[in-house]
Each structure stands twice: as C-alpha cells, then as structure tokens.
Model the fold of this input.
Amino acid sequence: MNTLLLEPHNGVLHITLNRPDSRNAMSLEMVNELRTVVAQLDSQVRALVISGAGGHFCAGADVKDLVTAGNRLQALNRAFGTLLQEVEAVPQVVIVVLQGAVLGGGFGLACVSDIAIADHQAQFGLPETSLGLLPAQIAPFVVKRIGLTQARRLALTAARFDGLEAERLGVVHFTERDPQALAERLDEVLGQVLKCAPGANGRTKALLLASVEQPLGPLLDEAAEWFAAAVTGEEGIEGMQAFVQKRKPRWAK
Done:
C-alpha cells in the first residue's frame, strides 16, 4: 500500500491514512487501496480502526486529482461514493479516530463509521460549496448521520466546527482533550466491541442499516428469521451456555 499503513492486532485492523504532506487528502489511489482492503476483510477481523497520520484525519479530495482527471471526473467522484457504501456495509465494527482536518471526504468517511472518537479541537466541515463544488457523494451519508436540517445548514454555508460541536450534532460519539485520552477511549471502545459475538454484531449492524430504508413489516419478518438462526447457531449456543455457566464466551477478549 502506498497511501495506507495497515496494522492487524488482536482481531482489529488499524488503518492509517498515510499522506501527511497533504493532510491525508483522498486521492484516487487512496480510494482504490481502501476499497481493496475492505474487499479482502475476513472473519478474523472483528473491527476496523481508521485514523490519519501527521495529526490530521483527512482534508477531503485531492485537488490535484480533480485537476488532472479530465473526462474521468464523474467516475472518480463515484468511486469515492462506492467506497463509502462499502465501508458502511462491512460486518465489522468501524471506528474512526478524528484529529485535525476532518473535511469533505474525510467528513463523509466519519459519517459511515459505527463509532467516532474525536479530538475536541478537530476541524470538521463541508467546504465544497466554497470552492464552487458539490459534496456530491458525501451528502446522503451526512443526512443519514445528522438529519436533513443540519446537513443543509452545514453544506450551504461551508461552516467549520470543532469536535465538541460535532458531538452535539451527532457526528461523533466521544470527544477527548488530548492524545492519551483519545487512546484510552479507543481501548475502552475496542474492549466493549470484542466482548460481542462477531457474527451477531454483523447481523445487528445489517439490521440497523436496513431499518432506515426497508418497510417495517418485511424487515421484522427478516429479523425474526435471523433471530431464530442466531439462537440455534454456534454463537447463540455458546453465548447462552456461557451465561448459564457464568463464564466468558469464547469470542470475548
């Protein structure tokens, strides 16, 4: 990987966006490498932690790519939307650690995470309209994250805001005051995630995402089918036996 650092550890894949000279701007190469990593995930990976090198998460699209894209602009833009769809849909728990610039595409990537942890001074925003552009692929995910009213305000003003405001809006779940506190919060969250059965987490995530779009009746029918399969499946049997025997289930770390 030219734009990413990958570090697997204890069932967690740590992905660092690694273009610090450009505040980890999202180049087409980075998009493609992230999509490759996501496509190759297996059941041994229970969580992804995405962060950025050099004190920034991601400053948005790489303007150099936009300038040189020519007639590939539409395809380039859509590739990033596909990346967001793929990251959102993985069965693994996706955690983002947000510092410095969290702008444009970086903001979009934060919005498809399951759990977001931010430095209180991180800078969030959708700067596209101030550049004469559109947050084309990001907008639907921002709306899902914080609602249409706030998304309209942020997109149509290109306003910047910090981690504390991001928490108030629901973009992030936790804000911390220093790198040590960020690391401690990440450890705490990972400890909680790794107590949960990976298969059950994956199905639960799919159920929650489907609840936004699918009609309620058919969704509940499908959920009942999944529940019955879980009760009689390997994880369900192990989890209930562990509960009765007052021990940790095999997946708990």
Summary: The two ends are 29 Å apart (CA to CA). The domain at 4-193 is CATH 3.90.226.10 (2-enoyl-CoA Hydratase; Chain A, domain 1).
